[in-house]
Amino acid sequence: MSSSGSVRKLEVVSPVPADIDIANSVEPFHISEIAKDLNLSSNHYDLYGKYKAKVLLSVLDELQGSEDGYYVVVGGITPTPLGEGKSTTTVGLCQALGAFLDKKMGQFLLKVIYFKLTS
After folding, report:
1. What's the CA gap between 36 and 103, in Å, rounded?
2. Which residues does 61 contact at the CB level (< 8 Å), separation at least 6?
3. Would 9 be classed as within a structural domain?
4. Domain count across the chain
5. Is 2 inside any structural domain?
6. pLDDT tens for residues 38-94?
7. How far apart are CA 31 and CA 35, in angstroms?
8. How many CA atoms lie within 13 A of 37 on its CB side?
């Protein structure tokens, strides 16, 4: 199962469960699946268990000459009473830009947030 090809059905639960209960309710993707989706070979990162890795700076050497991307900072957002904040807004922004431009936008960020929630 590829991490980019997996779609999970949204289940609305009331009352909203605690963060730890949400995190324990899903099976995180193995970090090697995410690295594969990002076109990173195994010599570009060091594993720290099944779900974490450190990306090596040698990746920058291989990216030289490739087209630069854009870096969008989402900051200064006042959270709503429902708890939507920078992460939720950033994910929504990535999804909207990706749909509009027909490109993968923020794929790595989405996965980082996913692992932050499930680790």
Report:
1. 18
2. none
3. no
4. 1
5. no
6. 778 889 899 999 988 888 888 888 778 877 776 666 666 676 677 666 677 777 777
7. 6
8. 19
Q: What share of the chain is helix, strand, coil (3-state, %, to 5)?
A: 40, 5, 55
Q: Sign of the C-alpha dihedral, residues 108, 83, 8, 28?
A: positive
SS3 call for 46: strand
Number of Cβ within 10 Å of residue 19's Cβ equals: 10
- With both helix axes pointing from N to C terminus, report the angle between 86-101 and 107-118 in degrees, rounded to the nearest 10: 150
Q: In this structure, how many other beta carbons lie within 10 angstroms of the beta carbon of residue 54?
A: 9
Extract the tokens encoding 28: 């995180």
Residue 51 lies in a domain: yes
